[in-house]
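Hey, quick one: can you model this chain's 3D structure?
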Amino acid sequence: MSHDQNFKNLILDYPQAALALFAAAEAADLDPDARILPVRQEQLQERLGKRFRELDVPLLVEWPDGRRAAILFVLEEESDPRRFSIHRLAHYCLDLAELLGTERVVPVVIFLRAAAGTAERLRLGGDRRVYLDFHYLRCALAELRYADYRDSTNLVARLTLPSMDYPPERKLEVYAQAVRGLTALEPDPEKRLKYLDFIDIYADLSDAERLQYQQTYPEEAQTMSRFAERFREEGMQQGMQQGEARVLVRQLRLKFGALPEDVEQRIAVADEATLLVWSERVLTASALGEVVH
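Sure thing. Here's the predicted structure for all 293 residues.
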């Protein structure tokens, strides 16, 4: 899964929190009863053709009582600021405005890395006047101070802590705070597992850092291990063999770090009885070979 797709899923799963973080200047005026709907992807594909960028996320905010006109937020995520084109974004927003028949459009660009020097305004005109003046809301995660969001009750902010600005020596603390936010703010077990993977991708801990995390934050590590075990039991009751294998891989990575490819392959093809035996061994094993052998 690409980083773009991970962020698209994040925005679609938590649209209110995403807008509150990435488009704070406009989202501050949104009422709790406003309805946030993703614009239908098939509609965009059919009407915009090649201009439609699947990894952008247009969100339509509506008020059920009609007291305010709907507003369209167009969120674009850029892993590499050098790939960003303000001309492309302006073109896309104009296409969407025409397609949906609205002038209420808020473009938002989420940069994963520092984006100094990136064009923030597009002005087209002649000698006498400007005929098009386009700019967008800019959120560069690498320029947000971790300290300002470490205890946030916004789940999207907590999940993106590893992408924010912090001293290198606080990397494990940042990871722990992201995990704490996930366990405190997300009650759904499947989403917990899904976004623990999200945190892992962007924290990108080495094997040595993961081991140090286990030693420095044993309570957080054990909490996630116990959660994975509970999710495993629920999955077994529902016959979710694929989910069981995924949870086992998660447990093993938490305890032993990156897994050899052959071990992951054996887990993927194992039957439920074997997965159950291996999952029980995780709790007492001191080496990977004691679990899968």
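One thing worth noting: The chain has a mean pLDDT of 85.
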